[in-house]
Amino acid sequence: METDALIEEMRRRAGQNVKLGYKVKFLVEDDIIFWDGTEHPPVIEGKDLGDANTTITINPANLQKLLQGQLDPTLAYMTGKLKVEGSMGVALKLTAMFSD
Q: How many CB atoms lie under 10 A from the CB of residue 54?
């Protein structure tokens, strides 16, 4: 799945949930997806919009699986498929939104 398609899927899911309240940066190989959850609906862009509370590093295939509910976020973290820098609580809130 291309980064643009991942961003669209994130926007769709984000619009169905409550305000996250934090900023999250996804490092997806050579791309950045920035989720500004301080707004509702959140601003989700394919560029760096500044500092984030949490940075998640994941490859595109695993992000797609996560969005589709085919990859358990805890298992992904434990097996190194997903890396988190910053607030783990924010990452857990975000992954709970994906699984809805």
A: 22
What is the pTM for the complete model shown? 0.89
CB burial of 17-31 (b: ≥16 within 10 Å; e: otherwise) equals beebebbbbbbbeee
Residue located via tokens 């490092």: 27
How far CA 34 is from CA of 10, 70, 75, 78, in Å, comes to: 10, 22, 23, 23
Domains of the chain (ranges plus CATH)? 3-89 (3.30.1050.10)
Give the pLDDT confidence of 25-83 residue by residue, as tens digits: 999 999 999 999 998 888 999 999 999 999 999 999 999 998 888 988 888 999 999 99
Which tokens is 70 given? Answer: 């085919």
